[in-house]
Amino acid sequence: MKKITLLAAAALILPLLANAQEVTIRKNLTARLPDLSKIDEVRKTPMPGLYEVRVGTEVLYTDAKGNFLIQGELIDTRARKNLTAARVAKLTAIDFNDLQIKNAFTIVRGDGKRKLAVFEDPNCGYCKRFEKDLQKVDNVTVHMFLIPILGEDSVAKSRQIWCSADQGKAWIDWMVNDVAPTSTPICNTEALDANLEFAKKYRITGTPTLVFTDGSRIPGAINAQQVEEHLLH
Q1: From edge to edge, which strands make up the β-sheet containing 51-55?
Q2: Spatial distance between the Cα atoms of 214 and 116, rounded to a whole number of angstroms
Q3: Nearest CA-CA partner of 168 in 96, 220, 120
Q4: Per-residue model confidence as pLDDT tens for the chain (233 residues)
Q5: Helix or strand (DSSP H, E) at 86
Q6: Angle 193-197-203 (CA atoms, 0-180°, nearest 5)?
Q7: Which end of the chain is more exposed for a tag (fewer CB within 10 A), N or C?
Q8: Whole-angstrom distance, CA of residue 219 vs CA of residue 211
Q9: Which residues pair with 69 in a beta bridge?
Q10: What count of Cα atoms within 13 Å lies in the side-chain half-sphere of residue 180?
Q11: CA-to-CA distance for 24 and 46, rounded, in angstroms?
């Protein structure tokens, strides 16, 4: 009976201690570092005495009293796993259903059964390389989100492409065939602003960024074979 009572007491006390620990960390960090006034979550890490402090999708680490703050990556050497990268990937995963498809133009190849979303800048050299390789991938629907992040010319070209009568053709002409868009950008371009806000929210800071239907995202230009592998999931 005593053992059961002690276990029951521990079950009640441990959450209280954990909560008190979180309160201490929050109090000390926000008092000493006002920029951390919007801490979203505090939780233990697998490393004894180390706590994760989450601000939005940014992951920081601290001790039990919030006396020290670490900005860096936590590596599990036994599992050979980057715990910080895995955590950020989970926090920034994008539900495919949350994508604002109305703010993208769509290119369908073959039966279009497989789906892919891509965030790109028209002046991104890596994007051009990716687009040329993507032409080898068939039976796919590609939702293209323009995010002009590389300067004023990117904004101008994005507007021209978005306002083209055939957006997909204008995009391929420029990205694959080096034929610059010529349309006069007279249309509603609020979608481009919405895409930039979406990118900011989900920390899409580089192009191309690919999003697959399982929520996984791949930063950077991958080749056609790698795209095919991800489309299988």
Answers
A1: 41-44, 51-55, 58-62, 69-70
A2: 10
A3: 120
A4: 455 565 554 455 545 456 788 999 999 999 999 888 789 999 999 999 999 999 988 899 999 999 999 999 999 999 999 999 999 888 888 889 999 999 999 999 999 999 999 999 999 999 999 999 999 999 999 999 999 999 999 999 999 999 999 999 999 999 999 999 987 778 999 999 999 999 998 889 899 999 999 888 888 899 999 999 999 87
A5: helix 83-91
A6: 140
A7: N
A8: 9
A9: 62
A10: 7
A11: 20
Task: Report the distance separating Cα 106 and Cα 171, nearest Å.
Answer: 11
**In the beta sheet, which residues pair with residue 54?**
41, 59
How many residues does the structure list for the chain?
233
- Omega before 208 cis (within 30°)? yes
Residues 51 and 72: their CA atoms lie apart, in Å, by 13
Q: What's the per-residue H, E or C state across 111-129?
A: CCCEEEEEEECCCCHHHHH
Domains and CATH numbers, the chain: 2-91 (3.10.450.70), 96-231 (3.40.30.10)
Q: What is the pTM of this model?
A: 0.72
Q: What is the dihedral of CA 165, 167, 168, 171, to 10 degrees?
A: 120
Tell me how far apart the alpha carbons of residues 93 and 101 are, in angstroms, rounded to a whole number.
17
